[in-house]
Amino acid sequence: MFLLNPDIFAENIGWRIGFFIGPVLGLGVIFLRRHIPESPRWLMTHGREKEAEETVDDIEARVEREGGELTPVDDSLAITVKATESIPFRQIAHVLLRQYPKRTLVGATMMITQSFLYNAIFFTYALVLQNFYGTSPSSTQYFFFPFAIGNLLGPLVLRHLFDVWGRRKMIFLTYGIAGVVLAVSAVLFHAGTLNAATQTIFWCVSFFFASAGASSAYLTVSEIFPLELRSQAISYFFALGQIAGAGAPLLYGVLIGDGSDRGPLTVGYFIGAGVMIIGGIVALIFGVDAERKSLETVTAPLSLVTTDDKR
């Protein structure tokens, strides 16, 4: 609101300053990252066993101080891992495309579908409000606040259910509800029964669920592949989702046009709804039940030392 006020900044300056907020936040994340401890698994696979043990001891002591109970782990579940260097891209491609193709399909589908819908709606948000509902540029910005709040509340309110009911089922449910709500809003939008406020409410409800599902999708992608590839896997799928989602604002911008015809954008909303529903169905059918399981149980580490290796 401050940067886009033409009384303070020229129109061609304020939004550019806003863009620079992103890199500033990035610098802050780099500084913050230096103070976040490495995971015990990462330390172990990089030959820093002592630090890994100290980290686990600290976590266990903290849990016990807070009244938590730690169930002893059976010795039969113990595994041996070896320190590994960086994983070559050829091996990464083998894991993603040959060893776990279904999991790759799930990861790619979840990231592409949620990115497509989010970019399609968010980056044309103001255009729809102004071209179809006649909001002024000075008032349109206020409609972004409830949208942001809905995106934040979804993961906060529903997060527990992803561990209780399971990520696979909850992703299907949240993606599906988001798609259905968007489809209903498309029907009402085409009928001309919505105004700026009610349209925003539908978007908020849709993204309340979509944001929760997308948040779980990020976690899912990083936990269904070998632990040595967790960070790389999520980076690949995130990049794939962003590339696929980049075309959504362009497509929907064309569908919006000058606001004289609601038909094309209605079709676009149905497409977005269908995309999300498909993403949920793929997660339900091909997803992996990983909640409340150790990463090693979900997927064997690449650094695992087998009986043959020990010989």
UniProtKB/TrEMBL annotation:
Superkingdom in the source lineage: Bacteria
Single GO MF annotation: carboxylic acid transmembrane transporter activity
Membrane-topology annotation of the record: Multi-pass membrane protein
Residues annotated as domain Major facilitator superfamily (MFS) profile: 1-291
Gene3D superfamilies: MFS general substrate transporter like domains
Ranges annotated as spanning the membrane: 13-32, 105-128, 140-158, 170-194, 200-221, 233-255, 267-288
Subcellular location field: Cell membrane
PROSITE patterns: MFS
Gene Ontology CC entries for this record: plasma membrane
Keyword vocabulary terms for this entry: Membrane, Transmembrane, Transmembrane helix
InterPro entries: MFS_dom, MFS_sugar_transport-like, MFS_trans_sf
Main localisation: membrane
PANTHER family assigned to the protein according to its UniProt record, in alphabetical order: CARBOXYLIC ACID TRANSPORTER PROTEIN HOMOLOG
UniProt protein name: Major facilitator superfamily (MFS) profile domain-containing protein
